[in-house]
Amino acid sequence: MRNVILILHIAASILACVVTLLIIIRASIGLIKNRGTSKWDVKLPLWATLLLYSQLALGTALFIFYIVDYANGEIDLLKKTEMRSRFWAVEHFILMVFTLVVSHIGWIFARNGKTPRLIFKKNLLYFGIACAMIMVSMVMNVAKHAV
């Protein structure tokens, strides 16, 4: 069960990263070419936010598994190898909640934007931050499993 949740969590993370990259590319092109918005400039931020909410639900389940393992004595935080994985128990969770908040704010601005230029600027800012945080999280995951 844990492995299925982990795979779904990773898939949602990759999809969220791809969608936020698409938002950044569309916003950059929109600002450079000074063009109008389309329905995708509002729908993509919604999809990115929904993917991050699904990540939160799946990540919470993984966090609960981690806490249960810790309570059962299967994880000893005093071991040097377990200290490295502590990032995924606490810091990763907090980082991704913050990413979700930034994404949600970006979606609200995309939905309520008055001018195309303002929508593109807000999408570029908020989803650029969200994408960077997702990538940091993914790099930390690779570093955790590669070392």
Topology of helices and strands:
Blueprint: H1 2-33, H2 40-71, H3 80-112, H4 116-146
Helix pairs in contact: 1-2, 1-4, 2-3, 3-4
Please provide a written account of the structure.
Helix content is 87%, strand content 0%. With 147 residues, it is mainly alpha-helical. The chain has 4 helices and no strands. The mean pLDDT is 84. It is elongated, with a radius of gyration of 17 Å.
Question: What's a quick, concise take on this entry?
Answer:
The protein is built from four helices and no strands.
Q: Segments where pLDDT lies below 50 for 5+ residues?
A: none
Based on helices, strands and strand pairing, what is the structural class? mainly alpha
Distance between the termini: 26 Å
Basic shape:
elongated
Question: What attributes does this structure have?
Answer:
147 residues; mainly alpha
